[in-house]
Amino acid sequence: MQSKLYLTLTLAAAAMLTTSCSKMGALSSDNFSINPSPLESVGGQVPVTINGRFPQKYMKKKATVTVTPVLKWQGGSAQSEPATFQGEKVEGNAQTISYRVGGNYTMKANFKYVPEMEKSDLYLTFNAKKGKKTVKIPDVKIGEGVISTSELVNRTLKSAGTAFAPDAYQHVIKQKQEASIKFLIQQAKIRNSELKGVSVQQFIQTLKDIQADEERKALENIEISAYASPDGGMKLNTQVAKNRQKSTDKYVKNQLKKVRLDANVDTKYTAEDWDGFKELVSQSNMQDKEVILRVLSMYQDPEEREHQIRNLSAAFTDLAKEILPQLRRSRMTINYNLIGRSDEEIQAQYKSDASKLSVEELLYSATLTDKADEKEDIYKKTAQVYPNDYRAYNDLATMAYANGKYSEAKDYLKKALSVKANAAEPNVNLGLISLLENDLATAQTYLSKGSGSAALNEALGNMYLKQGNYAQAVKSFGDTKSNSAALAQILAKDYMKGAETLAAVQKKDAMTSYLKAIIAARTNNNSLVVDNLRDAIAKDATLADYASKDLEFAKLQNDATFKTLTSK
Rounded to an integer, what is the distance from CA 378 to the centroid of its chain? Predict the structure, then answer.
């Protein structure tokens, strides 16, 4: 009986103590909530919003309480900015808490992420004073663990698409050679003086060159366009234009016969060349240019146009002297193709004497092999033969990057920029390396110079991902099928799109499977979690330990198969 009485008194004392402490003593985790829960790394930081409440009759009127968020893990800790609260009779600028009704508060905390935070606890520590007296308030644990999925970007970056500097080699290059023959007014006879002109002589020489090198030059056709100037009657101009067409056609066919070439000759004529007239007037310095152009815009009928222009006597004199003679002409155009070396010829030439290949042919030859060592040899040879072309250095860098040789890649890229400082591809690739080094400011500087590179948007996607701007990252990645693009979609909570992206990744690796496991975990498909983790760990054994600590798989911590997989 006595012992029961003692126990009753003890419990009563404890209750009184608790009541007393509630006024300025221990606080419960029930007084706090956090968002997100658990904590999650974003852009290299661990942000958290803490919502708390001081209970009724807790905050003494002359008390101050400084609350400090602290993240603790084995062997270390980090603290965020504190917040101070005060009672009603304290003079200060802190948030005032009513003694009678208590009060709610919200504070933001942020911690620079370190990997050890995955297994950590979030505490609130208190520094309280009532007047000049220090009051002890025990620490309160309000959260545990940090999801660090965003940090996987440091792994997905290793398989990021680098900026390749492509060759400009073409097996077939379309070419044109034009020539003009001018005629006297209302005449269609080709004058010998016109045939001695530079453009006509170049026309004839091109035909000879094609005939002499039919293996590398292929004639497609010849086009003839004959014109009459827009002065005089339509009937007369039509006949004149037709006759100029016929005489030019005859001349061209004679030239083809002389050089023993066959080709289609396509001819047409324009009776009154108003388009050419307008173009020449627009380009001239004639005093009445604007008046003439206004007439052309106001009147569509050819006769009315001519009538109105002839009324401008001074202007028409200039036209007759400077413009109209240029419109009495025929234009001849040779359309032909330059045929480059075949793949086999390029490869044979590389083996016999690579220096005889153009830089475009050399760079193109690297695309003809799937063997990395052969590609590297070609790029090195290209850099040797053409040291003033940045592309070989850049493409050597992309190979070094793919092999994880980032220092070597940087050396090649610096060499590329020494040749061409504004080259887009080396800047993009240096931006990617800066992201791997967690130097976001430098990465942004490099990427700002990457305009024109096909890989820029993907690189920007990786930068936004590192920054924690997931929506912008998804936008920049677009239809890119990469681990990084899928990671951005996962963090943006678009799991269906993330799964589609991972399924389409061409060179699937350990991270591809690991990200599939995360999607499976977030969509509550435990069997797929295990299957994908098994594949990921088989490709990269280090992921076993990583997965064992990863809160993405918290629900499987007691699963026997999961334990077996992650204990390897």
Answer: 28
Question: Helix (H, G, I), strand (E, B), or coil: what is residue 465?
Answer: helix
Instruction: Quote the CA–CA distance of 337 and 357 in Å, as a whole number.
Output: 20
Q: What are 116-140's pLDDT values in tens digits?
A: 999 999 999 999 999 889 999 999 9
Residue 130 burial by Cβ neighbours in a 10 Å radius (0-12, 13-18, 19+): middle
CATH class of the domain whose range is 172-339: alpha beta
Dump pLDDT digits (tens) for 261-291.
999 999 999 998 888 888 888 888 887 778 7
Q: Are 127 and 24 in contact (CB under 8 A)?
A: no
- If we measure between CA atoms, which residue out of 558, 547, 538, 540 comes closest to residue 518? 547
Domains 24-147 and 172-339 agree in fold: no
pTM score, two decimals?
A: 0.77
Question: Helix (H, G, I), strand (E, B), or coil: what is residue 64?
Answer: strand
Picking from 480, 482, 484, 481, the residue whose alpha carbon sits closest to that of residue 467 is 484
Q: Where are the domains of the chain?
A: 24-147, 172-339
Q: Are strands 264-270 and 217-227 parallel, antiparallel or unpaired?
A: parallel
The CATH classification number of 24-147 equals 2.60.40.10
Residue 400, CA atoms < 13 Å, CB-side half-sphere: 23
Work out the widest C-alpha separation in the chain, in whole angstroms: 140
Q: Got the DSSP string for 508-554?
A: --HHHHHHHHHHHHHTT-HHHHHHHHHHHHHH-THHHHHHHH-GGGG
